[in-house]
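Note to self: keep these together.
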Amino acid sequence: MTPEQDAMLRDVLTQLRGPSLAGWPQLGTDAEGRARTLVDGLAVALRRVDELATETARLRAEVHDLRTEISELEATSAELTAQLRGQAQRRLPWPLSLIEESVESIAARLEALLPEADRREPGRGTARSSRGPEDAG
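Structure:
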């Protein structure tokens, strides 16, 4: 090996392994407490990049889930707002307003049955006699 090649090899080794070929203190220490070489430092950096990429993917999935949840909450909020507007138009006070729709539905069914009942029993219409059953006859 020529002196130039030997000098170049020492320079490369110094760059890779640090001063005195004992590692670069700036790159931290390995498991045995020795200063890392350039290759070791690069390996640690690449592992960290991989960890960060994995963490980024997890966070993106979490952000997607949160956006979905926010959209669902906005839809629920809009539905509740519409229900509150409908409640404001109701005529009955609070505890009765909870059953108002059911009562209105039953009342509508009963009203629909009244004309049918009048057809079945002639003489018994919506206008009732002022006399009771004891006065008839």
